[in-house]
Specification:
By secondary structure, this protein is mainly α. Helix content is 72%, strand content 4%. The protein has a three-stranded antiparallel β-sheet. Strand 2 and strand 3 form a beta hairpin. The chain starts with 14 loop residues before the first helix and ends in a 5-residue tail after the last helix.
Length: 228
Amino acid sequence: MPAKSGMQIEQPKTLTEIVVERLREAIIDGQYAFGENISEDKLATAFGVSRSPVRDALNALQFTGLVTIRPKRGSFVFKPTGEEVAEICDYRLMLEREALRLAMAADRDGFLAALDDKLDQMRERMRAGDEIGYVRIDTEFHNLFFDHCGNRLVQNAFDLVEARIATIRTALNARFKQRREDSFDQHVAIVDGLKRDDWATVYEVLGKHITSIRTDAIDELARNPVES
């Protein structure tokens, strides 16, 4: 007799999966700088695990682009060049424009309600002076485009760069108050444009939003180069 739906038992996470989640969050939150060495021994001690799950986690994060593993040298947080930042931002703009269009067609009311909720949360985090909290919700705001788009291929395409985008966002928005305020105003303008079906404004503001991140990130990397 086949089992009824919803009866499956959720398997507990492996040590490797737990390490992946925690290390990914630490990198995105800016606890490690671009290009910083990540010691397997120190991570194993910090997490209270052996080096094996740490090594497996680093290999998994290398696949997402967050970590670079150099033979006989160690593991390092990714260090994008100006050209790589430009490519990531161009790719992001292309995907977000399409994801917005699909999300509005697939679930207009639910999508707009979710965006409004994230705007409220971002506003609260700004008032509280919670820089990291604000940036995390900023990331969730943009991820909603893909959560609601109804197209798994588009979602998978975004997954290739999502963690690197979030890390670059933290490096800028968590450090600069004016950058956060400008970013928030742009988010509000995007939602207002969507509600009016004013796609010209939506695309214009989204383009400015991502272009400003691209410009600021390239400038910041030039001012603060990381030694290889």
